[in-house]
Amino acid sequence: MSETIRRLADSSSYMVLQDKIAALKDGYTLNTCDTNLGHICELIELTSKIQNQLFTAMSLTASEGGTYGGVDTLKSRLLPWLGTSFMTSGGAVTSDTSLTLLKESVEKDRKISQLKSKHDNDVTQLEAELNETKEELDLTRDELNNSQADLEKTKVESGGTMLASEEEIILLRADLRLAKEAAARYKRQLDLVGDFEHEVEHLKGEIRLLRSERDILESRLRARGRSCSPPRRRCISPVVCDYERPLPPPSSPPTHAELTNSIRHSRLVARFNDLYAVDRLDMQDRLRRFVDDDEMVKRIIFIAVCEAFHVAKMAYRSFRLRARKLLSPIHSGPTTLEEAVTDYIVRNLDLYDVERSVEDVIRAMNVNPKISFPPECEFVLLSPFIREVCLVAYRMQALEPPLDIPLATDGELMNESRYRRSYDSEFTAPLVAYHIWPALVEDGTVLIKGECTTRRGALSSPRRSRSPSPLRSSSRLSRSSLSPRRSRSPSPRSRRY
C-alpha cells in the first residue's frame, strides 16, 4: 500500500489533472465540441486511473488491517457514497460544497507550489549572493593580509628609521655639548686674552713710568755724587785742615725697591679701589646668572678675596725663602741681605706663579662650608677676578711696610673705623651678619674701609650647607691626584675672613 501511495504521489496525477482542467477551461470556447468531449473523456480516464489506484490502496489497507480492520469506516463512508452514485445524500457536505472544497484544495496546492518555487528561487538567489559575498570576503581577506604585510613592513622600516633618528639625535646632542664646551673654553680664553692684554698695557705704562723715574733718579744720583766730592785745597796752616781729614764712609745707595716703594704703594691702593668699584660689580653680575641669593653672591666674592690674600701671602713667603736661600751664598755689598732679597723680589714680580695660586684659592673655596654654588657650575668662573686679586695681594707683600686685610668673622662686633655699613643693613644692629669687602690695613692703620652688612640676630643666622657637586668633586680629586703638593687644611682659626 505504501508503494502505491508513493507512486501516486510521485506521478503528481492530480496536478496533471488540474492542469488539463485549466487548459480545458481556457480553450473551451475556442475548441470544437468533439475536442472538448475528447478532453473531458481524457479527464475521466485519468480520473478512473487515479480512482483505480486509490481503490487498490484502499483494499491493501483494508487487508493489512485484518478481518475486521476498516469495516466500520467502509460501511460508514464508502457504501453510502457508492449507493448515491458518488454523491453523498443527506449529509452536511453537498455537491457544490465538495467542489468548493476541491477547488480550495487545488488553490492551496497551487499556492503551495508557487511558494515552494518562489522559495527555491529565493534560496538559489541567496546561495548565489552568499557565494558572491564569500568571494568578496575572500578578496577582502586577501587585501587585509596584504595591508597587514605592508603595515608590518612599514613598521619595520619606521623602527629602523626611528633608531637611526635617535642615533642621529644622540650624535647631534653630543656635538652640541662639545660645541658648547668649546665655546665656553674659547670664551674663557678670550677673557684671559683680554685680561692679558689689559695687563700688558698696564705693565707697559708702568715700564714707561719706571724708566722716566729711573732717569730722574740717576740724574739725582750723579748730581749728589758730584756734590759729595769737592776738590781738595792745600792748607797753609800747620794745623791739619778739615778737608784733609778722612771722610766718613758713604751711605749705601738706595735699592730699586726703596726707590719705587711709594709709587707701587699708590698704584696698588688705586688698583685695590678699582677691584672693589669695578671688578667686584662685574663679578656680581656674572654670578647672579647662576646664584639667585644676593647674600650668597657677596659671601662668595668676599671669601674669594680673603682666600686670594692668604694664598698670595703664603706664596710670597715661600718665594722670599727661596730668594734668601739663593742670594745668601753670593751676597756682598753695602746693602743688607734682607734689602737685597726685597729688591730681588720687586725686580722679579713676574716670576709669581699666579695660576697655581688661583687653583689653591678655588680648592679652598670648594671645601668652604659657608658658600654654595650650583652643581652644574664651578668656581673656575671666578678665575679672572681671583687672578687679579692674587696679583695685587702678592705685590702688596713686597711693600715696606706690606699691605694686608684684617681678620673678619661673621657675628663680630661692628668696627666703625674698619667697615662701613651697606645700604640694606640695620644701622642699629651692633653685630656683623656678613662681610662684603675687606678693609685694607698698613701697619695697623686702616687705609681703605671695607663694607659689611649688620643685622640683628647675626649670631643665630643659620649657615647654608653646600651641596656637593659631582663635577667639582671629580675635578678636585683629579687635581689632587695629579698635584703632589699638600693642600691646606680648612681650619676656621687660620682663615683670613
UniProtKB/TrEMBL annotation:
Basic residues bias: start-end ranges: 485-497
Biased composition (Low complexity): 459-484
Single GO MF annotation: lipid binding
Pfam families: MIEAP (PF16026)
Keywords, sorted A to Z: Coiled coil, Cytoplasm, Lipid-binding, Membrane, Mitochondrion, Mitochondrion outer membrane
Listed InterPro entries: MIEAP, MIEAP_C
GO terms for biological process, alphabetical: mitochondrial protein catabolic process; mitophagy by internal vacuole formation; response to steroid hormone
Subcellular compartments: Cytoplasm; Mitochondrion matrix; Mitochondrion outer membrane
Family: Belongs to the MIEAP family.
Protein name: Mitochondria-eating protein
Native source organism of the sequence: Ciona savignyi (Pacific transparent sea squirt)
